Amino acid sequence: MTSPQRPATRRDFNIAVICALPLEADAVDALFDHYWGDPPYDKAPGDTNAYSVGAIGRYNVVLAHMPSMGKASAATVAANCRASFPNIKLAVVAGVCGAVPSSPDGDEILLGDVIICEGIIQYDFGRQLPERFVRKDTLLDSLGRPSPEIRGLLAKLKSARNRKALQDSLASYLAVIKGKQDLDLAANYPGRASDKLFEAAYRHVGSGTCQECGCNGPLVSRRRLEQNNLQPKIHFGLIASGDTVMKSAEDRDAIAQQEEIVGFEMEGAGVWDSFPCVVVIKGVCDYADSHKTKVWQRYAAATAAACMKAFLDHWVPSVPLLPEQHGPRFLIPYLKNDMFTGRTFLLKKLQQQLFPSASQSRIALFGLGGIGKTQVALEYSYWLRKAHPNVSVFWVHASNAGRFRQAYTSIAQECQIPGHNDPNADLLPLVKMWLEGKNCGRWLMVIDNADDTQVFFSQPVDPEIAGTSGQDGNLGRYLPECAHGAILVTTRNKQTGLRLTQGKPPIEVGKMNEGESSQLLRATLGEVGIIPEELAMLSSRLEHLPLALVQATAFIQENTTTVSDYLRLIDQSDQDLVNLLSEDFETVGRDSETPRAVAETWMLSFEKIQQQNAFAGEILSLISLFDRQAIPLVFLSHYRKQQQRGESGGEIHITKALGILKAFSIIAEDKDHNLDMHRLVQLVTRKWLASKGTMQRFAGQALLAVSQVYPLGEFENRIVCGAYLPHAYAVLKSEDTGSRDERVARALLFHNVARYFQHQGRWKDAEKSQFNALELLKAVQGDGHPDTLTSMNNLAFIYSNQGRWKEAETLGVRAAEISKKVLGDEHPGTLGSMNNLATTYSKQGRWKETETLVVRVVEISKKVLGDEHPGTLASMNNLATTYSNQGRWKEAETLGVWVVEMMKKVLGGEHPDTLASMNNLATTYSKQGRWKEAETLGVRVVEIKKRVLGDEHPGTLASMNNLAITYSNQGRWKEAETLGVWVVEMMKKVLGGEHPDTLGSMNNLETTYSRQGRWKEAETLGVRVVEIRKKVLGDEHPDTLISMDNLAHT
C-alpha cells in the first residue's frame, strides 16, 4: 500500500476522525502511519477545535479532539471541522459506548466488542408527557439512514469473507496498539473475570465499584466467555444516541426492545448530518446499567480504533468518471529554442534509436552540467512532434522526488486520467498504468535532470556516503514499460543513466566542436561586427561548453560590449573568469529551479557528488588544486593512506570515488590512467572550496601529497619528475599557512624540483627553487640541520655552474665548515660539500687548491664509501680533470679511464655522470693531440647526450663544443665552424651571453676563424670574448689569459 504525501493545504484532507475522550484519541493517534504536524496547518476563522493530522493507511486523516462529551459538543466540533477542512468526505466517530447484552438476532455482545452503526436513533429526542415520554420519530425529525456509500460498504462487510477480513485486520491493528508500550496506552484485555453482566433487576448497591461495594447479585450466563480463544467481535446495528448516560438496565432493555438497538452513545447524533458520509464505530466498555465501570474504557477505545483503521482499508470513495480524451499530448514546459545549433550526430542517433523505429525503449544522455543535454532532448522532442504528430510527448522534471511527483500530477490532470481527482489516489502508479495501457497511444517521456540515483532506486548507504533521498526513494518503479512508449533520460550522473536505462550504455554529450561553437555564438550575437578569429578564441577560452558560451553572449549583449572586451576581461585573471561564470542570465530550456549561472550549475553537481559519496567530494577538492592535466593516481593513494587511519579497502574507495566523478563528467581518464579536468571546472571547484571555507585545508593536503610523492631529481627519476612538475608548480603557488609540517614539505618539494632543474641544466630555475628551499629550511630547522646543509651545498653548486664563483665559493666554504662541525669530516654530506668546493676552485683556475682538496676527498671517500661508490667516482673524476688542466696527461688519462670503466659498471653507460667522465677523457686525449681517439669518444658522447638529455642541454652543448675543438685541431674547418656556430647560438640562448661556457665556445670559434686566416672575424670575436672574460672572470683567470693570448696571435 502506497503512503500518501503530506498535503499541501488543509483542503487536501478527506477523512476526519472525531473522538470525545482523550483516551479514545490516544488509541486512534497510535495507529497513524505518518504525522504531518510540523509545520502545522492553519484553521478557518472562528474554529476553536484542536486537531492532529497525519496519514492512516493510504489516506490523509484529521483527528478532531472534542472538548467535552455530548451531541451539542459533537455538532460544534463537526461544524468547525467542516469549515477548516472543506473536502472531508468521510467522518468516523470512534470511541466507547454502552451495549445491549444481546443483539436483536440473539448474538451475545461482550465488553471489548465493537459496534459499527447502521443508523442513529435519538432516543432522548421527543416530548415528556405527564404519563409518558414520546420520542419524535417522524420523517422530518429522524436523522435518516447512512449514505448509500456507507450502506453499500456495510452490506459488503457483513458478508462472510469480508467480515472475516475485517475481523482479522482488527486483531492485527489491536496488536499494534498494544505494542506501543512507550505511549502507556493500557490497552490490554482486562480479563474474563471483569466481564460481569448482572440481571437487569439487580441494581448497584453503592457509589464505588462493584468490587468496592460488594455487588453480589445474580449474573447472566455468557457462552462466549467460556471460549478458549476469545477475540473482540464486530457487530452491526442501530445505536441510540443522546445527551444522557444510560445507567439503567430496565430502561436499556425497554428501549432496545422497542427500537431494536444494540448500543448507547452520546456523539453520533451531533455529527450525523455534518458530512457527506458518517460512520460511528464504538467499542463496548459497559452494559449501560448501574454497574458501569471505567476498567474497560481503554481496551474498548483500542478495539474501536483498530476497527476504524480496518474499516478505512475497505473504504473506496466515489469519484466522477471523466470522459477520456483521445489524441496525442505535447506536454513540454519550454518553447522551441530557435538558437539551437549543431549536435547533428546526437540528434540523428536519437532519431534512429527511439522513434520511429523504437529499437530501444530507454536512452540516457549524460554529460557535464551545462553541456546541453536538456537542449538536445528539447530539440529532439520538437522534431518528433513535427515528424510524428501522432506521438505524445511528456516532460518530467526529476531533480528531486517532489518535482517528479509534481510532473506526474500534471500529466494526470492534463490527460484527465480516470481517478486523478480522487484525493486518496496515488497518482504515480495511476499514471504508470495509464501510459502502459494501449489506449494511450504511442508516447515519449523525457526524464530531465535525473541526477540522483537514490531518488529512483533504494540502495544501501556506503559508509562514506552522506544519504540523500529518504522516504522518496525508489521512484524508478513508476517508470512505465511497454512496447508503444519510450523514455529519454538526461542526467549529469552516468551511473544514474545506466540504471534508468536498465544497463544500456548512456550516450555522452560532450563539448561542442569549433564549428558548432562558432555557429552558436553567431546565432546568439548576430553577424554584425563579428570577427571570426575572436569567436574562435572565445570558444577556445570557454572550452566549447555551450552554457558558458551562451552566458558569455548574454553578458556581451546585456552590457553592450564586444567579444574583444569580453576576452580581455576573462584573460585578466582566473578570478575575473570565475566571476563572469557566476553571472546570472536567462536562456530557453532552463528549468526555473535550475541555477542559470555556469558556476552555480557546476556547484550543484559538486554538492550532489558530495552527498552521494563524501570521499568523492574530497577527491574532487584535492585534484582541483593540482595541475588540471595528467593527474597521477599515486597522489590520491597517498592522500587516502593519510586519511584512512588504518582502514582497509583504500583502493576500492578511490575507484568508487573516481567512478562518481567520471559519471558526472567532472574528470576523464587518459590511456596512462592519469586524470584530466576541464580548466573552467577546476576554477569553479576552487571557488566552491573558498565558499565552503575548505580551501586552506585541501591546499595543504595537496602540497603534502605532491611533496611526499615527488622524487629527488636524479637522472633515474627524470621522466617522473618531468611528469609531476606541473603539479609541483600548482601546489607551490598555494598560500603558506605557517604550519611547520607544510613548510618542511614545501622546502622538500622545492629541493627535489631544483635537483631536477639542475640535471636538466636549467640553472636559473634550479637557483630559484633551491633558494626557496634553503630559506624555508633555515627558518624552520636551522643552519645546522642536515637538510639545510644539503640545500646550501646544492645552491653553491648551482652558482658555480652559472659562473658565479665568488658566491659559490662563499656559500660552499660555509656549507663545508658547518658540515664538518655538525656531521664530521668523514660524513658523505661533508665530502659532497668539499668536492663541490673543489669544483668551484677548479673553474677559477686555482689548480693547486683544487688538487689538495679533491685528493683529500678521494682518500676519505674510498675509506668511508668504497672505491666504487658514485660519490667516490665523482670526486676521482674531478681529480682526473684537475690533472688534465695542469697538463699532467698521463695521470689524468690513467685515472680517467678507470673512472669511466667503473661508472659504466656502477651507473650504466648512459648516466650523465658516466657521460661527463667520458667527455673529460676525450678532452684529455685532445690535449695530448690524440685527435682520432678524442673524436671517436667525443662523437659517441654527443650522440648519447642528445638522446638522453636533449640537443639543448648544457651538458650536450659542452660535449659538442669539445667535438668542434677536435675537428678544428684536425684541420676540418668547415665541420668545426658549422658545429661551433650552432653551439655558440644555443649556449647564448640556454645559458646567456656571459656564461663561462658560452665564452669558452666563442673562444673556440675564434680559434677556428683564425686558423682559416679569417683574421677580421677572429679579431672581432676575440676582442668581445676578452672584454667579457675580464668583466666576468677577472684579468688573471686562466681562461682570460688564454683568450688574450689568442687575440694577440690574431
Structure explained in plain terms:
- The chain is built from 41 helices and 19 strands.
- It is of the alpha/beta class and 1050 residues long.
- The strands form four sheets. Strands 12-14-15-16-13-17 form a six-stranded parallel sheet, sandwiched between helices.
- Helix 28 packs antiparallel against helix 29, helix 37 packs parallel to helix 39 and helix 39 (996-1011) runs antiparallel to helix 40 (1015-1032).
- The model is unreliable at 321-325 and 460-471 (pLDDT under 50).
- One of its GO terms (biological process) is nucleoside metabolic process.
First-last Cα distance: 108 Å
Helix percent band: 40-55%
Mean pLDDT: 85
Taking strands numbered 1, 2, ... along the chain, how are they ordered across the largest sheet? Answer: 12-14-15-16-13-17
Major sheet, described briefly? Answer: 6 strands, parallel
List low-pLDDT spans. 321-325, 460-471
Radius of gyration: 47 Å
Strand content: 5-15%
Structural class: alpha/beta
Structure annotation, total helices: 41
* Envelope shape: elongated
Number of strands: 19
Protein name: Nucleoside phosphorylase domain-containing protein
Domain Nucleoside phosphorylase: 15-271
Organism: Lasiosphaeria hispida
GO molecular function: catalytic activity
Summarize the structure in short.
One of its GO terms (molecular function) is catalytic activity. With about 1050 residues, the chain is α/β, with parallel strands linked by helices.
Pick out its properties.
41 helices; 53% helix; P-loop_NTPase; 1050 residues; six-stranded parallel β-sheet; Nucleoside phosphorylase domain-containing protein; five-stranded mixed barrel; elongated; Nucleoside_phosphorylase_sf; alpha/beta
